[in-house]
Amino acid sequence: MSTAVTEQHGLRTGTMAQALNLALRDAMRADRTVHVLGEDVGALGGVFRITDGLTAEFGPDRCLDTPLAEAGILGTAVGMAMYGLRPVVEMQFDAFAYPALEQLFSHVAKMRNRTAGKLPLPITVRIPYGGGIGGVEHHSDASEAYYAHTPGLHVVTPATVADAYGLLRESIASDDPVVFLEPKRLYWGKAEWDPAAAVEPVGRAVLRRPGTSAVLVSYGPSLPVCLEAAEAAKAEGWDLAVLDLRSLVPFDEETACAVVRSLGRAVVVHESAGFGGAGAEIAARLTEKCFHHLAAPVLRVTGFDIPYPPPMLEHHHLPGVDRILDAVARLQWEE
Amino acid sequence: MTVLDHRNQPAEAAPVPGWRPGATAPRTDPAPLLPDAEPYRVLGTPAAAGTDPELLRELYRRLVAGRRYNQQATTLTKQGRLAVYPASTGQEACQVAAALALRPADWLFPSYRDTLAVVARGVDPLQALTLLRGDAHTGYDPRATRTAPLCTPLATQVPHAVGLAHAARLAGDDTVALALLGDGGTSEGDFHEGLNFAAVLHAPVVFLVQNNGYAISVPLTRQSAAPTLAHKAVGYGVPGRLVDGNDAAAVHAVLTEAVERARAGGGPTLVEALTYRIEAHTNADDATRYRQPEEVDAWRAHDPVRLLEDALRERGLLDERLVADAAEQAERLAARMRAEFHTDPAPDPMSLFAHVYAEPTQQLREQADRLAAELAAEAEAEDGTGSGVPGR
């Protein structure tokens, strides 16, 4: 993917939600083929206001309020992309995307392959995802493993305000379909950032914090938790590095392996269920590639293997600092 | 009482119930949405006199070739030359006549049984079979031929047609999309969502349901309780047409009207074509388990090729030369199919990695290297120049 960020904005303070909104706005200004569609994206500006003001600026055709039907939304986007548009689809909540999975798996992910490259589908599927906001059931699923398991899709998730802007611009500019997972609980975190400053491209992991003892490998909503854990670990005498994958597909094996080989100890952290989760793939891959450099097994800290719990119990499910530190303690592996 | 029964009743302004907010969309009288009480027919009716003789001859040539294509493809499955073939024998008129109602710039969205429609669009008859032969997913260029890949999941191509038609309209083009599906497909959610989107977006798209009586083994009575599948259109606020799917001229007339209506900004139409699948679902199916031979025989008597042939003879439009030409053309096609499918194709194994992403990921590059090494080792072993891979 190529970085498409060219606009000059200057340094600003803003939230991830605002950065995403600006990314959509700039992408639509830069390319007339970019069309946004979804339920409530128009007058309301989306339930999270990510599409705020787009219909006012670009009209109801380019920011289209659709009937409430996820398969219909994504299926319509497939046809639009076949005719040369770049649709950006909003799925209102993570679990609401499931009716569209057949379109995603059977068509969006495969059309390039089915047509020997003649019909690539440049569709971005934005999905507010993950828990930690007190949502009731069906509003907090972390579903990245389904998407990452489906060849043909890119799976991207930002953890910083700057990445939210940069990665979304790149995803929209990509000729391949991208599942763009927006960590809901990071929507309102403020940061100072410069939209004109290029970020690392999709598919490149970024070391958010250097360290000498072990590395926490994570992405999206769990990244700030890892940074917090690394800070707390200092009291235990641990100097933890934190690696932000930023995209699961492509997976930056090179960077992840380099860090793991140099430190010999790693913990993979995510909030979705552990069994068959992205962490299982990452841990297996790091073990296969870095086995002789490891001083301990690659450990995983994940959510439990349960349906997403009611909001009053979600803090027990979501990996927190203590659970991460507990895993770090177990990295002091003895034969 | 069906919606059809309302047709002759005077429309009266119903009082607005007190609970209903004022700002609702204008409500449509359902009666004009279903103009056909009985399936619309042309052949054997006075309307036939008005049909262009050259169109009828063209339909005849294509139906005869299509029938032969179905027979030859089925034979090829028995010889193991095709992995599978869902024959459209008995449904040739629907497919050919519908495709001929489109202009070259229009788009067709076929399902797996619609190879004849794909061929009628101008796709090479053999390239239309690569999916079923098993050597490639789509043998033709969808963009060049304005023909989407043959769709295997049911009704998922319906919203694609809607999206493409919508995008074409936004671009200011007068392109129309035609989605083909079967009776079983109307039970799928994507059929509903696609029609609803089409209606709300007022998209220039036409849906043709080839109702052939069975979704594999399940008869229409277990598929839908609607009086006709055309009735389903009323719920979306779009016109539904019912046509005799074995009457090629009727299908062409109804589809042409719907396509040109869409082109002129009139919005979508749902057409139900009543037809019958003479053969089993595919060569792997045993149709005798779920239907009686008498039923099949009754439909054979209403064969689309024979209907057209009789109509042409009646009007004096069928001379022996046309019969001979059509038969010869069909035989040439069958001979070409036999010749080209005589041997197994040899698709390039490395093509597995060619079109997963615009650029392969690191992991895919490694997997491609691994396969290349396996192929090299195999080649070496076959050459006898090496001992092959130990332990295998």
UniProtKB/TrEMBL annotation, chain A:
| Keyword Electron transport tagged | no
Required co-factors: thiamine diphosphate
Question: What's the EC number here?
Answer: 1.2.4.4
Enzyme class label: oxidoreductase
Pfam families (UniProt xref): Transket_pyr, Transketolase_C
Q: Which Gene3D superfamilies match?
A: 3.40.50.920, 3.40.50.970
Q: Name one GO biological process term.
A: branched-chain amino acid catabolic process
By its UniProt entry, which InterPro entries does this protein fall under?
THDP-binding (IPR029061), Transketo_C/PFOR_II (IPR009014), Transketolase-like_Pyr-bd (IPR005475), Transketolase_C (IPR033248)
Alphabetized GO MF terms: branched-chain 2-oxo acid dehydrogenase activity; magnesium ion binding
Keywords recorded for this protein, A-Z: Oxidoreductase
Name of protein = 3-methyl-2-oxobutanoate dehydrogenase (2-methylpropanoyl-transferring)
Q: Which organism is it from?
A: Kitasatospora setae (strain ATCC 33774 / DSM 43861 / JCM 3304 / KCC A-0304 / NBRC 14216 / KM-6054)
Give the organism's phylogenetic lineage: Bacteria, Bacillati, Actinomycetota, Actinomycetes, Kitasatosporales
